[in-house]
Write a structure and sequence with these properties.
heterodimer, A: alpha+beta, four-stranded antiparallel beta sheet, two-stranded parallel sheet, elongated, B: alpha+beta, six-stranded antiparallel beta sheet, 13 strands
Chain lengths: 329, 583
């Protein structure tokens, strides 16, 4: 298996095997456009994301080591204190129950905590309560949005500075935006909870995808540095070759990054149920996969497409066609 | 050559690394022995359980709170929390607007209420002062001897305020070891029994105070300065100058008139009368009880006494901001049970182990014996990070949270990536026909730039994430940045010197089958080549540096020299999947 993968990589490198990313770009662009459109529509139709209580405000209780996972007990404990609250009780993992309610007062939160302790027959040490006031939730939301805007803005500036040609920066930016929107869409569609941990995982993914884009575009730059004097391949073909050559590298970087993240996800989602680990690793996992794909399928073909109309490159393409025609004669 | 050979410089660098380790360990050991640090890193609430309250101070009549007011609010809360006997509480500010209180365990309702209560400063006249210790039970005034005032008190200093209950309270209160039981907020219209805490220069004092005469809110300003002597010369002692607002000036004048009479009367007899004092009370504790040496008519008293510059400033600040009616609004409260915290820690570490194992298996699989170098480097990086976190926990009170643990785990992948970059560069150089020793050197030169660039990106991202993050998730950005730094250190000071040393051994130098650098493995294109140039003999080669052009051209036309040499030794097998494409 290893030798066949090695041969695979080698053939990609030499051009013997080549996947046509650039020529089939129309399909990828359509898919991306549909994905982005869906990602924008879904939260609109669904009425927003599934926000964690750090953003919404509210109260959340986690009861560990319960003897029974009956949800009714939790609901009753809540109703005893606040009759018209609507609690969401879930068995998040193993012997852990999580109860979420909307805005309560701090005092009610503490009384519900006591009620849950006796309802599920656990000790006080095994109940965690989290109360987020309304102002705090708004503050956190605002800070997260500011952070998002600042981060994306900074990334755009960095890319503009590094690539220096506006077409490259634009393609890279579009790739990043597609990653962003699609990841957000996945969250909206799947009702994964959006918490501050998820946001920071999301931002980490952006920085990772930025670096990945830089690597691929560096290779493109290398291949096309003397494109006007070369007659072996057209511009589009050079870009395609660059993507193929870095395909193995992209896949492998993704693998090495995803391995520890998958470990955290398995532990976080499987054993702990909910919380920082799960939110963080889920965002990283989804984002890294989408980010790698976006660079390969969107950013690079877009760049080729933007540039192929340039007069010099058109001339060069004609030369290549001519040479190939001659060669077959 | 005059330059030291690579082997010596490798040894030197490794020695430096060893020295760094020794220094860090010594620092930590020193901290542990003096009792302030511990070998284990400090854990945040979500890993060890506890309560965290975020309070927003609100100043009545003002919309925003400035930094000094915030610091004063922190001081007030700290005084309350310390007074309530909760040990190891941490109080800090956040975003310049909020006060974050972290308490271990689960505080009682009284403690929570106490922390949230509004700050309250008042002036009360002193009726009696006494020994700070609690009177032992047998010596207390028996019930029939307790005073039973019948008349209404004429003014705030009148002895008729002292009822039997007040005397009982006075005798029971212990000001030397103040009880941590919480008392309800006092009634401003009733007398109060309170303590003045001991300072460096004065012992504690216990008082019976009359009802509130002037409210703290009536202070319009307070400053501190050196006291001017009789002839206007500046003396060496410090004093606090208070300015009352209009209403309070008249009230204060009346108060000082009355108190001054006691002072004058006592002076005539050569004694001191506690009734000449008025007490400044903050949160039902007396912070100062100066005597009224004169009648203050302009509402601008100056308080003198055993003040140093620092203590005068402290009192002045307290007066200025204690005068503010600050209330605290609870923004968020998180109580993490110890069980959940312990679970999260355990499982977080488990996730780390699994991630590490996966990366280790992958390295061994692809690099064979070189994978051992990867593992060793990861271990060294891990130790460095651990020491850094432990020392930071001691000096900066840094606490490792679950997000931080996640950052450490994610960084494992990033660290392994930089080693792979380096190894692949070495392999490239080997394919060009270099010997292992010079391949290590040249590969390092090219890999260095790539590693630096990728770590720079990581650090920049971590930095931005740190400032942009909300709440506890900052820990993730912090550990990400910390591990990027540790990774840099390890690659430069461990991995490279190790390879320099290993290149001279027979096992690696001659390309043993399991070394990961054997030519037959080189011939096959590896699974992962790291960032940058991939070589091909077939197509136009990637632009190599002029220095390598000759070797590159040659390798382009034939099998790699290493392969050729081995073929010459008759050991090469299966060279058809070598780097030369057969047409």
């Amino acid at each position: 298996m290893t030798t066949s993968f090695a041969t695979f990589g080698h053939e990609l490198y030499t051009g013997k095997r080549s996947y046509n990313f650039v020529n089939s770009k129309k399909i990828w662009f359509i898919i991306a456009a549909v994905a982005v459109a869906l990602s924008i529509l879904t939260p609109v139709v669904k009425g927003g994301f599934n926000l964690g209580i750090e953003f919404r405000g509210g109260s959340e209780f986690t009861v560990s080591n319960v003897s029974t996972t009956d949800a009714a007990l939790g609901e009753r404990a809540v109703h005893e204190v606040v009759p018209d609250a609507i609690p969401r009780v879930a068995n998040v993992a193993g012997n852990t129950m999580r109860i979420q309610t909307d805005q309560l007062t701090d005092d009610e939160t503490n009384r519900i905590k006591d009620g849950l302790t006796s309802a599920y027959g656990v000790t006080e040490n095994e109940v965690t309560s989290n109360f987020v006031g309304p102002t705090w939730g708004q503050d956190v939301t605002r800070q997260a949005l500011i952070g998002l805007v600042v981060f994306v803005g900074l990334a755009a500036v960095l890319m503009a500075l590094y690539f220096r040609t506006w077409k490259m920066s634009l393609s890279a930016l579009v790739g990043m935006l597609v990653t962003m929107f699609t990841t957000a869409g996945v969250y909206a569609l799947s009702d994964f909870e959006v918490t501050p941990s998820a946001i920071i995982g999301f931002l980490t993914v952006l920085s990772y995808s930025l670096y990945d884009t830089v690597v691929v575009f560096d290779k493109i730059r290398e291949n096309t540095s003397d494109i006007t004097t070369s007659t072996r391949r057209t511009f589009g073909e050079e870009v395609n070759l660059a993507v193929n050559q870095t395909l193995v590298r992209s896949i492998n970087t993704m693998m090495v990054a995803v391995l520890p993240v998958a470990a955290i996800l398995f532990i976080g989602a499987g054993l702990l149920g909910a919380g920082t680990l799960r939110d963080l690793s889920l965002a990283l996992f989804v984002g890294i996969l989408i980010g790698t794909a976006a660079t390969i399928f969107i950013a690079a073909p877009l760049y080729a497409w933007l540039r192929q109309g340039e007069p010099e490159l058109v001339k060069q393409a004609k030369k290549v066609a001519h040479r190939r025609a001659e060669a077959t004669v | 050559m005059a330059r030291t050979g690579p082997k010596n410089s490798a040894r030197r660098v490794l020695t430096w690394l060893g020295a760094i380790f020794v220094v860090l360990t010594a620092v930590l050991a020193g901290g542990v022995m003096t009792g302030h640090a511990s070998w284990a890193p400090k854990l945040a609430l979500d890993l060890e359980g506890g309560t965290q309250m975020i309070l927003a101070p609100r100043v009545e009549g003002a919309s925003d709170i400035n930094e000094e007011q915030l610091n004063q609010a922190v001081a007030i809360i700290r005084q309350r929390v310390d007074g309530s006997g909760v040990a190891e509480a941490e109080i800090s500010t956040q975003s310049g607007r909020n006060v974050v209180v972290s308490l271990p365990g689960t505080p009682s309702k009284e403690t929570r209420d106490l922390i949230q209560a509004s700050a309250d400063m008042n002036f009360r006249p002193v009726i009696a002062a006494g020994d700070p210790a609690a009177v032992p039970a047998e010596q207390r005034t028996p019930d029939d001897k307790l005073p039973k005032p019948t008349a209404e008190p004429a003014n705030a200093s009148d002895n008729n305020w002292v009822t039997g209950d007040v005397v009982k309270e006075f005798e029971a209160l212990d000001c030397v070891n103040p009880s941590t039981e919480k008392r309800d907020r006092s009634d401003p219209a009733k007398p109060l029994v309170a303590c003045e805490p001991a300072t460096d220069k004065t012992p504690a004092v216990k008082y019976i105070l009359g009802p509130v005469e002037v409210k703290g809110q009536d202070i319009s300003d307070s400053t501190f300065s050196q006291v001017q002597g009789a002839q206007g010369s500046v003396t060496n002692s410090w004093g606090v100058n208070i300015v009352f607002n209009g209403d309070a000036t008249a009230k204060f004048k009346a108060v000082t008139e009355r108190l001054n009479q006691f002072y004058v009367a006592a002076q005539a007899q050569g004694t001191e009368d506690p009734k000449s004092q008025f007490a400044i009370v903050l949160d039902d504790k007396v912070i100062s009880a100066p005597r009224a040496l004169a009648v203050i008519t302009d509402g601008k008293p100056q308080i003198t006494g055993n003040f140093t510059q620092a203590s005068a400033k402290a009192l002045s600040d307290q007066l200025r901001y204690g005068a503010l009616p600050i209330s605290f609004e609870i923004q968020s409260q998180e109580q993490i049970s110890a069980t959940l915290g312990g679970d999260q820690l355990r499982l977080g570490l488990l996730a780390g182990m699994i991630g590490l194992l996966l990366v280790v298996v992958y390295s061994l699989f692809q690099y064979r014996a070189l994978g051992l170098v990867t593992i060793a480097s990861l271990v060294v990086a891990g130790l460095l990070t651990y020491l850094a976190i432990a020392i930071l926990g001691w000096t900066e009170n840094y606490r490792l949270s679950l997000a931080g643990v996640a950052g450490l785990i994610v960084a494992i992948g990033q660290t392994a990536d930089s080693f792979i970059v380096y190894f692949e560069r070495i392999r490239d150089e080997l394919r060009d026909g270099r010997g292992l020793v010079s391949a290590v050197e040249n590969g390092w030169k090219r890999a260095k730039r790539t590693v630096l660039a990728s770590k720079a990106v990581n650090l920049l991202a971590a930095l931005v994430l740190y400032f942009v993050a909300v709440g506890n998730v900052r820990g993730f950005a912090f550990t990400l940045g910390l591990t990027a730094l540790a990774d840099l250190l390890v690659v430069f000071m461990f991995t490279h010197p190790m390879l320099q040393v290993l290149a001279r051994t027979k096992f690696f130098g001659e390309g043993h089958r399991f070394s990961g650098l054997s030519p037959d493995r080189l011939g096959a294109v590896p699974l992962y080549r790291g960032a940058g140039r991939l070589r091909t003999p077939e197509d136009k080669p990637t632009p190599v540096r002029p220095r390598n052009a000759g070797a590159a051209a040659e390798a382009e036309r034939r099998m790699t020299i290493a392969e050729r040499r081995l073929a010459a030794k008759g050991q090469l097998t299966g060279s058809s999947n070598g780097s030369k494409e057969e047409k």
